[in-house]
Amino acid sequence: MSCTGLVFDIDRFASHDGPGIRTTIFLKGCPLSCLWCHSPESQSPKPELLFRADRCTACWLCLETCPRKALSKGERAVSLDRNLCDGCGRCCDVCYPGALEMAGRERSADEIVERIGRDASFFHRSGGGAGLRQSRFSPLWRGSRLILWRKSPVFLVVGIAFAWSSVRDSDL
């Protein structure tokens, strides 16, 4: 059985915040809610539907796929009722322009290692590596860091976000 976690984003070929080329895996569930957070959609520990009205082409394909009828025709774009949406993501599968997107997909540690492995030759040539950004509350926190460190073919850095006031000695 493989450990899984809710992956918010996989940023390949990152080079702006350290040496070399890196692949960074971002997990959902950050408890900090920093005012300066550049990815507030990463804070919830559950999958969330993102909607970008400027990308909607009003093709209405998503309306037919939503089992909860959370989507309706708006004046220029789809209208989303978040109270009805259960986050199933079916609408995202037919939204070709990318107006509807799920923030958070369940991934196994094996999948993450495989993704990191695809870029290993770039890491070795550039002096980069891979990074895992996660909250200590993520399901991947306990078991996967050991799984990932053992299986990963490259250098792996783990960045963890947590509020100091919530940490117990047994957590470390």
Account of the 3D structure:
The chain is α/β, with parallel strands linked by helices. It has 2 domains: 4-42 and 105-171, no CATH class; 48-103, 2-Layer Sandwich (Alpha-Beta Plaits). Helices cover 23% and strands 28% of the residues. The chain contains 5 helices and 9 strands. It has helices at 61-65, 90-94, 109-118, 120-126, 140-151, and strands spanning 4-14, 22-27, 48-51, 71-73, 78-80, 100-103, 105-108, 129-135, 156-161. A 5-stranded mixed sheet has the order 7-1-2-8-9. Strands 3-6 form a two-stranded antiparallel sheet. Strands 4-5 form a two-stranded antiparallel sheet. Strand 8 (129-135), helix 5 and strand 9 form a beta-alpha-beta unit. It is elongated, with a radius of gyration of 18 Å. Mean pLDDT is 77; it is low at 139-147 and 160-172.
| Total beta strands | 9
Distance between the termini: 24 Å
Helix segment tally: 5
SSE run: EEEHEEHEEHHEHE
Q: In total, how many domains does the architecture comprise? A: 2
Q: Structural class of the helices, strands and pairings?
A: alpha/beta
The order of strands across the largest sheet is: 7-1-2-8-9
Overall outline: elongated
The largest sheet is: 5 strands, mixed
Q: What do the pLDDT scores average to? A: 77
* Low-confidence runs of at least 5 consecutive residues: 139-147, 160-172
Radius of gyration: 18 Å
Strand residues, percent = 25-35%
Helix content: 10-25%
